[in-house]
Amino acid sequence: MSAPTLNHQITGYDARQAYGMAKAAELAYEDPSRIESTAAEWGFDRIRHHHSTFAPPFALSDTQAYTMANSTMIVTTFRGTEPVELRDWLSDATTPPWRGPGNTGFVHYGFAEALRAVFPAVRSAIDELRDAEQTVWFTGHSLGGALAMLAAAWLEFENPRLAADGVYTFGQPRTCDRTLADAYDRALAGRTFRVVNNNDIVARVPPEPVFHHVAAPRYLDSAGRVHESMPLVPGLLDRGRGLTSDLFAPASDGIRDHLIKAYVAALEKNRP
């Protein structure tokens, strides 16, 4: 696949930017040396890696991310996790939600704990690397998408000097209650884009009405085309087409659509 082009001046949703951010999210699954060499090929000459472990209320887990910078742009990318592990996190119903940024609403405890493990290092890296008024961006896939959105929320409401200029997430689960989702949508309108691929199962958990998605969705249909919205009936029909695309394993479509490589392939086709 061709190398992405990331543009620090982009405002609103942009197909090239979406592809570039998806490639950055895909890169987060590689080892540090591969991240550094690839980022350098993309024109980012400074890299900071973030890795921290945490325990309660889950078995020992870790959060991984990287921040890359050049003279015009800083991009922090959070790594996702396996759907099975994410399911275990989301099944914990005994732990109360975490208070949201700026005391606004509530956040799923597991996501807040995962972000807390690396957020001081992320914030410090952005502060250090932002030496030329570079624009600030967040991205991530799966759990990484949830953390990207929440990191942008914490900066927006508690450290606006470093507020995000753009947020692209892929296969992001629901992260917070309605109060925080509404406040986030008001504050970051036109800067956040939540990309969902057809039957991606992770984008449909944890359940409503306790947890909600933030705007603004971009829906990839079963043919890989991007839609700003998908009405109920056409959406159901399109999901049905996705489920029947593999007659030998229809139940696997929700996992297959969640893979970051599926997002990258679809978004590459949508570039002008």
Name the CATH class: Alpha Beta
Cα gyration radius (Å): 17 Å
Give the averaged pLDDT, no decimals. Answer: 88
Helix content: 25-40%
Tally of domains? 1
Explain this structure to me?
- With 272 residues, the protein is of the alpha/beta class.
- The chain has one domain (15-269): Alpha/Beta hydrolase fold, catalytic domain (Rossmann fold, 3-Layer(aba) Sandwich).
- Helix content is 38%, strand content 19%.
- The chain is built from 10 helices and 10 strands.
- It has an 8-stranded mixed sheet with strand order 1-2-3-6-7-8-9-10, sandwiched between helices. Strands 4-5 form a two-stranded antiparallel sheet.
- A hairpin with a 6-residue loop joins β1 (46-54) and β2.
- α4 (109-116) crosses α6.
- The protein is globular.
- Mean pLDDT is 88; it is low at 232-251.
- Keywords: Hydrolase.
- This is Lipase (Class 3).
- It holds the Pfam family Lipase_3.
Defining key terms:
hydrolase; Rossmann fold; globular; alpha/beta; 19% strand; 38% helix; 8-stranded mixed β-sheet; 272 residues; 10 helices; single chain; EC 3.1.1.3; two-stranded antiparallel ribbon
Summarize the structure.
The protein is of the alpha/beta class. The protein is built from 10 helices and 10 strands. It has an 8-stranded mixed sheet with strand order 1-2-3-6-7-8-9-10, sandwiched between helices. Strands 4-5 form a two-stranded antiparallel ribbon.
Annotate the secondary structure layout.
Elements: H1 15-27, H2 32-41, E1 46-54, E2 61-69, E3 73-78, H3 83-90, E4 98-99, E5 106-107, H4 109-116, H5 119-129, E6 135-141, H6 143-158, E7 166-170, H7 178-187, E8 192-197, E9 217-220, E10 226-227, H8 232-243, H9 253-256, H10 260-269
Parallel strand pairs: 3-6, 6-7, 7-8, 8-9
Antiparallel strand pairs: 1-2, 2-3, 4-5, 9-10
Helix pairs in contact: 1-10, 4-6
